[in-house]
Amino acid sequence: MTAGTAARLTSSRTAPLVGTENLTFFGDQGRRILRLYHLYRLTIGLALVLLISSDLHNDLLQMSNPQLFQYGAWLYLILNIIVAVLVQSPKRDLPVLSLALMDVILLSGLFYFGGGTPSGIGNLLIVAVAIANILLRGRVGFFIAAVAATGLIYLTFYLSISRSEASSQYVQAGALGTLCFAAAFLVQGLTRRLQVSETLARQRAEEVANLEALNALILQRMRTGIMVLDPQERVLLANQGALQLLGQESLAGERLAPRCPELLKALQHWRGNPTLRPPNLKATPGGPTLQPSFAALQHGNKLDTLVFLEDISQIAQKAQQLKLASLGRLTASIAHEIRNPLGAISHAAQLLQESEELDGPDRRLAQIIQDHSRRMNLVIENVLQLSRRRQAEPQLLDLKYWLHRFVSEFRQGLSPQQTVHLETIGSSLQTRMDPNQLTQVLTNLVQNGLRYSGKEHDRAQVWLRLFRDEASDLPVVEVLDDGPGIAAEQLHNVFEPFFTTESKGTGLGLYISRELCESNQARLDYRERAEGGSCFRIVFAHPRKLS
To answer: Domain range spanning residue 253?
Structure first.
C-alpha cells in the first residue's frame, strides 16, 4: 500500500461524518438493504393505519392522545411512501442519516401518543436503530441510538407528568434505551466483520483474476506450442506459439483433422502406444520441424488431451554443429594426407607439360591430370572450410539497405550478358545475422542462378526479392532465376553434401549455404516456380531472437 493510499484511507476514517462519507455498503448491496428498509417502514406504517382504521387501537393500546396517534400513523405512512420513491440510491450518508432521524422521531412521537412502553412501539425503535447502524458507520450510528434512547426516556418522563401510571415505566424505557445502544454495538461489530470479509473476498477475487490473466499471458507468449483437444479432436485451446508453428490464424473450436492431419496421425500413434515417442512432423511445406508430445488431461468425467509442440530446429542446429565438428576433424586429417601427394601430382603434370619431348596426345593427358588435380584441391578446400568455419557473429541488419549495397557491389563484377535485379517490398526490414556469412550465402545463390539462367538464355538474369511474410511476420529474401529449375527426383537431395549435377561441381555450395543460414537461425528452402526456373527462399529470424 502506498503512502498516498494510506493517507486517503486515514482521512476517510477521520473525516466529518455527516454528508462526507460513503455508505457502509456500496453499490448493489447497499441499495438492496435500503430497499428492505423502505419495505419494512412501509409495512409498519400500513400496519399502524390498518390498526387505527379498525378501531382496535382503543382496545389494544392505552393511548395518551388517540387523535394525534391517528394523525401520526397516517403521517408516518405518507412520509415513508414519499421517501421510498425519492431516496433510491444515495451517494452520501446525509440522506440516509436524515431518513433514520425521521424514522426515530416519528416512532418516538407514536411512542408518546400511544401511551409509552406498553404500546410496544419502543421495540420498533430498536429495529430502526439496528437497520440504521447497518447503513451508517461509527459515531453516526451511535448518534441515532442516542437520539432513540433519549427520546424513550424523556418522553416517558413527560408521560409521567400527565399520567401517574407512567411513573412505573422508567425501568422499561431505560431497558429499551440500553437495547438501542446494544443493537448499535452488535450491528456495527457484525457489519465491520462483514466488511472485512467482503474486502478480503474482493481482494482474493482480484488476485485470482490477475493470476488467471497472467497465466493466460504467459501461455500466449510461450514459444512452445500448447493445445488442448477434447475427445472428438476438437481444439479447445491453442496459444499463439501453436498457431505460429502450425501456420494457422485460429484453431479454437475447429476439428484437428482438416487443419493439421499430420498432427492427428501423431496423436493416433501416441494413443496406440503412449510409451513410444511420436514421430516428428512438418505442419506446413517449408515450415519448421516439430516434435509433438501428448499428455492425458483428466478433469471430472472428461478426458482431454494436452499437446506440446516444440520447434526442434535449434536442437537440430546444435546436432549439426556437432556433426560438422566431427566431420571437420576427420576431413582435416584426411586432407592433410591427400594434399601433399596431390601437390606432387599437380607439380609433376605441370613439369610434363613444359617438356619439349611430349607430343599432342601426351600433353592432353597431362592437362587432364592438372585439371582433375585442381578439382580435387577445390573439394579439399571446401571440406576444410566446413571444419574451419567460424561461429556466427549475428549483427542487427537493415536488410533493405544491406541488399542494395550487396547488389551494387556484386554488379561491378558481372559481364555484359549478366543482370541482377532487386525488388524490395515494404519499409525497413531488420534481422540479426552475420553479414559475412550472409554475403557468402547470397553470392553462392546468385552465381548459381546466373550460371543456370545462362544455359537457357543469351542473357543470364537473377531476381532478388525482399518482403515480409504475412503468415510468420518474418523478413524473407527470394533468389529467382529463369533457368531449367531442379528436377522433381532431385529435390530431396539438393541440399545434401557432395550432391551435384555438374561435372565440375563439388556439391557443397548449397549445403554450406543452408548450414550458414541455420547457424544464424534462418531457414533456406527451395520453391518451385510455376513459370519455370528456380526459387531459393531465405526466411530470416526475428531481430530479437538472437539478441
So the answer is: 225-311
Residue labelled with grid coordinates 415505566: 169
Q: Which residues does 385 contact at the CB level (< 8 Å), separation at least 6? A: 512
Kindly calculate the radius of gyration of the chain based on its CA atoms and give it in whole angstroms.
46
Q: How far apart are CA 394 and CA 430, in angstroms?
A: 12
Question: Residue 480 in contact with residue 462, Cβ under 8 Å?
Answer: yes
Residues of the chain with pLDDT under 70: 1-28, 55-64, 91, 93, 164-166, 168, 286, 314, 316-317, 320-321, 323-325, 327-328, 331-332, 334-336, 382-390, 498-499, 501-507, 544-547
DSSP 3-state assignment of 488? Answer: helix
Helix (H, G, I), strand (E, B) or coil at 310: strand
Same domain? 195 vs 78: yes
Residue 481: name the closest of 518, 441, 526, 540 by CA. 526
Cell representation of residue 413: 563484377
Question: Rounded to an integer, what is the distance from CA 278 to the centroid of its chain?
Answer: 28
Number of folded domains that form the chain: 4
pTM of the model as a whole? 0.42
Question: Does some domain include residue 475?
Answer: yes
User: How many angstroms separate the CA atoms of 528 and 491, rounded?
Assistant: 10
C-alpha to C-alpha distance for 419 and 417, rounded to whole angstroms: 7
Residues 6+ apart with CB under 8 A from 542: 431, 474
Residues 63 and 204 in one domain: yes
In the listed set 388, 411, 436, which residue is the last one of a domain according to the structure?
388
Question: Do the strands 460-468 and 418-424 form a parallel or antiparallel pair, or are they unpaired?
Answer: parallel
Grid coordinates given for 407: 547488389
Measured at the CA of 98, the angle between CA 92 and CA 99, to 5 degrees, comes to 100
In contact, 145 and 165? CB cutoff 8 Å: no
- Closest CA relative to residue 513, chosen from 450, 459, 438, 461: 438
Q: Per the structure block, which three cell numbers stand in for 17?
A: 461524518
Sign, Cα dihedral of 206, 208, 213, 214: positive
| DSSP run (H or E) holding 290 | strand 289-299
